[in-house]
């Protein structure tokens, strides 16, 4: 088990990813966070429990940070902030469900197309190995798909 995530960040500039270490010791990309998005380990942050995931910055970044404690205070004091948090959680859940559906029920090419459609800018900013692990495919498979595309 890892540490409890105690901060939520807003990315003004930069790129980050969440990942975990697989059984073979290789890292597996779970999610990418870019400009205009919130960055945190959601499960650990909102439930305040140790995380099994890691987060790393992939580019120089400008971030704004709020602690879990301060956010909870704002939720109590300002219902508009609480509503914003609820809407953000709903949006994050929707994204997670769409990604889960793509990863479970689509072919490797369809997963690639899903990522290309949803996150076209990331293909110029990420290492191919990170893209391949996010898509649940080997780097060689990603190279073949890209060559045919």
UniProtKB/TrEMBL annotation:
Residues 1-75 form the Cyclic nucleotide-binding domain. Pfam families: cNMP_binding (PF00027). It comes from the Bacteria. SUPFAM superfamilies: cAMP-binding domain-like. PROSITE patterns: CNMP_BINDING_3 (PS50042). InterPro entries: cNMP-bd_dom, cNMP-bd_dom_sf, RmlC-like_jellyroll. This is Transcriptional regulator, Crp/Fnr family protein.
């Amino acid at each position: 088990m890892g540490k409890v995530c105690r901060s939520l960040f807003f990315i003004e500039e930069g790129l980050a990813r969440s990942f975990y270490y697989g059984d073979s010791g290789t890292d597996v990309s779970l999610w990418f966070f870019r400009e205009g998005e919130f960055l945190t380990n959601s499960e650990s942050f909102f439930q305040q429990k140790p995380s099994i995931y890691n987060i790393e910055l992939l580019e120089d970044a400008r971030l704004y940070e709020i602690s879990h404690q301060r956010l909870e205070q704002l939720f109590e004091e300002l219902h508009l902030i609480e509503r914003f948090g609820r809407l953000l959680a709903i949006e994050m859940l929707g994204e997670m469900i769409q990604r889960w559906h793509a990863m479970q029920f689509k072919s490797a090419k369809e997963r690639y197309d899903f990522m290309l459609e949803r996150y076209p800018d990331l293909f110029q900013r990420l290492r191919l190995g990170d893209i391949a692990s996010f898509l649940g495919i080997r780097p060689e498979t990603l190279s073949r798909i890209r060559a045919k595309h």
